[in-house]
Amino acid sequence: MQNLRMILAVAALLWIPTVVQADSAIKPSPQLPATMPWDLEALSQPPSFEWVDEQSPVRSLFYAGEPYGGQPTRVFAYYATPGTLADDSSLDKNLPAVVLLHGGGGTAFKEWAELWAKRGYAAIAMDLAGHRPVEGKNPHDGRNRTRLDGGGPNQGDGEKFGSIDKPAKEQWPYHAVANAIRAHSLIRSFPGVDPQRTAVTGISWGGYLTCIVSGLDNRFKAAVPVYGCGFLQENSAWVPRMAKMKPAQRERWVQLWDPSKYLPAVSMPILFVNGTNDFAYPLDSYMKSFDVVPSPKQLRVTVNMPHGHPPGWAPQEIGLFVDQHLRGADPLPKLDMLMVKDGQASLRWQGPQKITKAELHYTTDTVEINKRKWKSIPAKIEGQQIVAVAPPENATAWFLTVQDERGAVVSSRVTFSGESP
């Protein structure tokens, strides 16, 4: 094993980048906390890499990760473009690009990279748990993964929470964020990619990572976290886990790794995508996360959105939002604040697409926010204004959704009873 580590260390030094270094470095926001542990200048540089498969429609590679346990690491990733799918490199000119971050229990998903390549993007999807999927087998089954020689930390409870007393650079969130930014620096340097038109999207824990990465790496022009958010210590699936920590451990975890510390530094447009009843990332923490973002932001909250990787990359609004900001396509409808007054709930909207449907959603339940039942009632479309009957007096939360002629849905901010208008 020691000989293998020595070989890997030498190999890491001998990997010679075959790409031109991108000319743009991350410009850290003054809103980032002083405790931020990443070297953003170093992460701005494209990492060394080597191809595993340079011939298939969806290609694969290893790139250099951060040292772990005193040893060099490598990261497995899939890469696809319109040109790789068609076996025609002439199609790859000034492509927009997207970085794809999987969630807990996930890996590098070939189908996700292919989906974005079919949309006209260069796409990179990496494994953030020191593994790689077994080719030809279902990647959604965790048994179909192999541990990398030289892989970084796994994505279990021990690596995410149990390592809190270790140095920051020996913990999973540090490596996952760093490897996401390294993937961004790498894809920006590839021939045929326009480094000034990139986006990041992630699902569940990948959405969590997207919230952090979008605050750190201002080179992205759009970000779409799905499910994931911050304020996990206040309400999330991990509150019981954090309760087992000592107060100082919990405080350190929140300061280093909770997205609430990084979302105030987000500078690019961001779309938050979630459901009303998500088991992991409930709406109260979700709205707090949305509220602290200073950049242009939109929401797509829908009733009972299922949780998972395919359901998390399925919403067409993700692609439309990225198209809007990277390709100048028609924007999603923009909604003003939902107001409730004189027995009506109303808001104004703007956008080039016709609105074909609008609904008000509310709940009167008082149980945990992600276990409440929601009711939906139709709203009227009156020009640039949407009007519905106000939610009942005993409503505990409410929001409005609109759908445009493409079928794209966006929502207002979710309002909770007792909030100041």
Indicate the percent of residues in helices: 25-40%
The share of residues in extended strands comes to 25-35%
Secondary structure class reads alpha+beta
**Large-scale geometry:** globular
Total number of beta strands: 21
**Strand order of the main beta sheet, please?**
1-2-3-5-4-8-9-10-11
Largest sheet: 9 strands, mixed
Could you please describe the fold and organization of this structure?
There is one protein chain. By secondary structure, the protein is α+β, with helices and mostly antiparallel strands. It contains 12 helices and 21 strands. Strand 13 and strand 14 form a beta hairpin. Helix 6 crosses helix 7 (205-216). The N and C termini lie far apart (62 Å).
What's the arrangement of secondary structure elements?
Layout: H1 2-14, H2 40-43, E1 49-53, E2 59-64, E3 74-80, H3 82-86, E4 95-101, H4 110-118, E5 122-126, E6 131-133, E7 145-147, H5 157-162, H6 172-189, E8 193-203, H7 205-216, E9 222-226, H8 239-243, H9 247-257, E10 270-275, H10 283-292, E11 297-302, H11 309-313, H12 316-327, E12 334-335, E13 339-341, E14 344-350, E15 355-363, E16 375-378, E17 380-382, E18 385-389, E19 397-404, E20 409-411, E21 415-416
Parallel strand pairs: 4-5, 4-8, 8-9, 9-10, 10-11
Antiparallel strand pairs: 1-2, 2-3, 3-5, 6-7, 12-14, 13-14, 14-18, 15-16, 15-19, 17-18, 19-20, 19-21
